[in-house]
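re: the backbone from monday

yeah here it is again, tokenized this time
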């Protein structure tokens, strides 16, 4: 639960990484969250976004827990920025499946499953405003790339003017603002994502296409696909090139169209 002295947000931390060099050490992983605790006598309830965060961080947790390599420097989440969000984001997909929601999204008092009409609304709402969300994210990612492509920032550098020029080059709609303005964009200045904020969207390409490996079989719990996911993604750490790891899991390179279709920005049946 959140508290005044606790850092905000949610993350996975590793107390001990998987390691076969120094005594076959088993991984020890923790997920940290910040949920709002209910008043005394009341159950603490999670919104859909809360539950999605839980699934996301547990995906990172699995990446650490299922690591199966020799060297600790290659274990768990010690992978390239392009790949580290993929194991977390693909795990989010199971939350959005009817089989999971029907089982776990239950009324806190009666225990009844979510009514079908409400479940239908939840499923339909997942693509609400995705055009807006995609633009606000991509604008942040492109400005991140622009600012970190500058060889030297002069004294008195005007970040506001730079942002305006950068957005003008990509034709940013005036009705939409960046997801994060540069002056408070901690991710790209102190959070380790310098020139790498795009990786969240790239990971969505991977997770959208990667989850289809399950849905194409008609079984979101297909054991053969799950075994490949464990072996070549969750267990592989950085022991092989991420592109090769994905090909070994999926059998081919990722298809970016899967992201457009997942976000409702392309027709999955007509090919438009």
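seq for it, each position gets an aa:
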């Amino acid at each position: 639960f959140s508290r005044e002295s606790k850092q905000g947000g949610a993350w996975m931390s590793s107390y001990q990484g998987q390691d076969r060099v120094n005594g076959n050490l088993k991984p020890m992983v923790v997920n940290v969250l910040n949920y709002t605790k209910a008043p005394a006598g009341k159950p603490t309830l999670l919104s859909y976004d809360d539950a999605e965060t839980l699934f996301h961080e547990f995906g990172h947790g699995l990446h650490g827990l299922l690591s199966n390599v020799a060297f600790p420097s290659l274990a768990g989440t010690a992978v390239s920025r392009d790949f580290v969000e993929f194991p977390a984001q693909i795990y989010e997909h199971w939350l959005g499946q009817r089989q999971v929601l029907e089982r776990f999204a239950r009324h806190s008092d009666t225990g009844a499953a979510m009514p079908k009409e409400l479940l239908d609304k939840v499923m339909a709402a997942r693509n609400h405003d995705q055009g807006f969300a995609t633009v606000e994210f991509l604008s942040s990612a492109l400005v991140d790339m622009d600012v970190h492509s500058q060889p030297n920032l002069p004294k008195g550098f005007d970040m506001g003017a730079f942002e305006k020029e950068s957005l003008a080059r990509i034709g940013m709609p005036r009705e939409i603002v960046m997801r994060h303005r540069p002056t408070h964009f901690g991710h790209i200045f102190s959070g380790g994502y310098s020139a790498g904020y795009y990786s969240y969207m790239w990971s969505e390409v991977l997770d959208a296409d990667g989850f289809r490996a399950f849905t194409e079989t008609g079984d979101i719990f297909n054991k053969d696909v799950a075994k490949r996911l464990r072996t070549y993604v969750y267990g592989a750490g950085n022991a092989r090139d991420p592109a090769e790891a994905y090909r070994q899991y999926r059998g081919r390179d990722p298809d970016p169209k899967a992201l457009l279709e997942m976000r409702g920005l392309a027709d999955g049946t007509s090919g438009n």
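Residues 130-189 form one domain. Strands lie at 11-16, 28-32.
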